[in-house]
Amino acid sequence: xxxxxxxxxxxxxxxxxxxxxxxxxxxxxxxxxxxxxxxxxxxxxxxxxxxxxxxxxxxxxxxxxxxxxxxxxxxxxxxxxxxxxxxxxxxxxxxxxxxxxxxxxxxxxxxxxxxxxxxxxxxxxxxxxxxxxxxxxxxxxxxxxxxxxxxxxxxxxxxxxxxxxxxxxxxxxxxxxxxxxxxxxxxxxxxxx
Length: 193
Prior knowledge:
By secondary structure, the protein is of the alpha/beta class. The chain contains nine helices and five strands, in the order αβαβααβαβαβααα. The chain has helices at about 5-15, 30-45, 60-65, 65-75, 95-105, 125-130, 145-155, 165-175, 180-190; strands at about 20-25, 55-60, 85-90, 110-115, 135-140. A five-stranded parallel sheet has the order 2-3-4-1-5, with helices on both faces.
């Protein structure tokens, strides 16, 4: 199922139960990474890595051992709670492996989270995640950051006592920078202010 821009925020904050897979893709790697991080935190909580409920696998590792995708989805962890398998930098070369893992997915298996760069509408990965009922396709567009995204970055950085004029200037800077660069700028401001 393909999510539109207005549904992405609510989906990432509270994904529904029983999701087999989520594809997050876009031109800007930092934005894709941020959205992936939000989804993992909402889906698994903040201690997922320490509790070994999040497995990561790269595209290259998956090419060498395709059965790992299914094995990692089915594996039961030591700690209770939701689990996820993160497949990073996916492209068409591993789409058959991901399709097989999604097709064998059963309720209780780890959610398959796939990140990718720009994908054409004819991409088999996009088609898979857009057409199945228990999978979601989350396109991340290169639109300027919204006011709420800027506010979120400012609050996470610890930057306090921002005047209205200061906030207006930060909005202007945010419209000219990529999200990762803007976040670094705000972090430096918070450090020195």
